Amino acid sequence: MAVLSSSYLFCLLFFFLPCLYSSASLPKALLIPITKDHSTLQYTTKIKQRTPLQPTNLVVDLGASFNWVNCEKNYQSSTYKPISCNSSLCASLKSLACSNCYEPPHPGCANNSCALFPENSVTRKSTIGDALIDAIALPTTDGSKPGPLALISDFVFSCSRTFLLKGLAKGVAGVAALGRSNFSLPAQISTSCSSPYLFALCLSGSPTAPGVAFLGTGGPYVFVPQQVDLSNSLMYTPLILNPVGDTVITYYRQPSDEYFIGVTAVKVNGKAVNLNETLLAIDDETGFGGTKISTVVPYTTMESSIYKVFTEAFISEAAALNLTLTKSVKPFDVCYPVDEVGSTRVGPAVPTVDLVMEQKEYVFWRIFGANSMVSMLGEEGEETWCLAFVDGGIGPRTSIVIGAHQMEDNLLQFDVGSKRLGFSSSLLLKQTTCSNFNFTSSYNNNR
Ligand SMILES: *[C@@H]1O[C@H](CO)[C@@H](O)[C@H](O)[C@H]1NC(C)=O
Ligand SMILES: *[C@@H]1O[C@H](CO)[C@@H](O)[C@H](O)[C@H]1NC(C)=O
Ligand SMILES: *[C@@H]1O[C@H](CO)[C@@H](O)[C@H](O)[C@H]1NC(C)=O
Ligand SMILES: *[C@@H]1O[C@H](CO)[C@@H](O)[C@H](O)[C@H]1NC(C)=O
Ligand SMILES: *[C@@H]1O[C@H](CO)[C@@H](O)[C@H](O)[C@H]1NC(C)=O
Ligand SMILES: *[C@@H]1O[C@H](CO)[C@@H](O)[C@H](O)[C@H]1NC(C)=O
Question: Does the pTM exceed 0.70?
Answer without folding.
Answer: yes
